[in-house]
Amino acid sequence: MIGTPSPSSATLGAPLGAAPANPTTDPGRAIDLDAFRAQPVDHNPFAHVIIPGFVRAEVREAIHRDFPEIEQPGSFPARELSFGPAFAALLEEIQGPAMKAAFEEKFGIDLTGHPTMVTVRGRAKAQDGQIHVDSKSKIITVLIYMNPAWETADGRLRLLRGPESLDNAVAEIPPAEGTLLAFVNGPTAWHGHTSFVGPRRVIQLNWVQDDGVVKREQFRHALSAKMKRLNPFR
Question: Coil, strand or helix: which one is 176?
Answer without folding.
Answer: strand
